[in-house]
Design a protein that fits this description.
With 144 residues, the chain is α/β, with parallel strands linked by helices. 48% of the residues lie in helices and 15% in strands. Helix 4 links the parallel strand 4 and strand 5. The chain is globular and about 45 Å long.
């Protein structure tokens, strides 16, 4: 199960990604928003991040206009490593080297076709472990 959330600026891309994933048989739990009416991204980004952190969802995708605010929000939740990606190489490397468990995208930066590719790479790339595990452990230790 993938947690997904957006603010009003990311709503259309969130809906596109939900439909794209559903067509691939991937289930999403939508944490809002449910319209393009102005809202506060921290409410929705936090809800999705908490679902990933507590294990209700395996990974998460959060979207706002730039991806910046909602990624900062998600990263405030203990146990979350949310990476803002606007290209598939960043999505690959953040999974391989950082074991990111959430992906943030900016709907004003990334169009639907590129977003699909970023999501595919993010969800299908495995963490390498090894020396990278030590570094992720160092990051996680900062939360204690």
């Amino acid at each position: 199960m993938i947690a997904i959330a957006s603010d009003h600026g990311g709503y259309a891309l969130k809906e596109h990604i939900k439909a794209y994933l559903a067509a691939k048989g991937i289930t999403c739990q939508d944490f809002g928003t449910d319209s393009t009416e102005s809202c506060d991204y921290p409410v929705f980004g936090r809800a999705a991040a908490e679902a990933v952190a507590d294990g209700r969802c395996e990974q998460g995708i959060v979207i706002c206009t730039t991806g910046i605010g909602i990624s900062i929000t998600a990263n405030k939740v203990k146990g979350i490593r949310c990476a803002l990606c606007a290209d598939s190489l960043s999505a690959e490397m953040t999974r391989r080297h950082n074991n990111a468990n959430m992906l943030a995208m900016g709907a004003g930066i990334v169009g639907p076709n590129l977003a699909e590719r970023i999501v595919d790479v993010f969800l299908n790339t495995e963490f390498e472990g090894g020396r990278h595990a030590r570094r992720v452990d160092l990051i996680s230790a900062m939360e204690k």
